[in-house]
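Our consortium's second objective concerns turning raw sequence data into structural hypotheses that experimental partners can test. To show how far this objective has progressed, the report includes one record in full. It was chosen at random from the queue rather than selected for favorable results. The single chain below, 142 residues long, was entered without modification.
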Amino acid sequence: MTFYNEIYDIWIKEKDNVKLSNLNRIDFFEQANKYLNHLDQQRKEEKDEILKEVFQKRYERSEYLVNDLINLRIEKFIRGILLDEGVKVENLGFDEEDLYGVLSENLNDYKNKILQNNDEKEVKSKAKSKPKAKAKKKSKSK
């Protein structure tokens, strides 16, 4: 199986599943980056125009799959965080663990900040809307 086939299979699996799928290797994105660099080097060095075009197309397709895979996984991170479902840590690649932690912390901080501000706004608006006690007018006697 070529690495391109591995990328494609993982991409298909990710598109077909609602939950974050397992990459089957913790260093997947590191290896994908090496593969893309290798293809890029081959397309630049190739003298034969037909082979150069083959490497170009393979590079473009591989780059699309890796970028789309990254986007799909980030969407699932965010959805899991927002719905308080999280993700299975064993499904994260090495490079994704830090990203997931940062996203989780920042999104939760943001939600708490917004909710805290809403609570504070509600308290302030209730304080402003309380009717003030009116002084009774003295009636004039005739």
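The partners drew two points from this record. The two ends are 108 Å apart (CA to CA). Residues 3-127 form a domain with the Methane Monooxygenase Hydroxylase; Chain G, domain 1 fold (CATH 1.20.58.2050). Both points have been shared with the crystallography group to help prioritize constructs.
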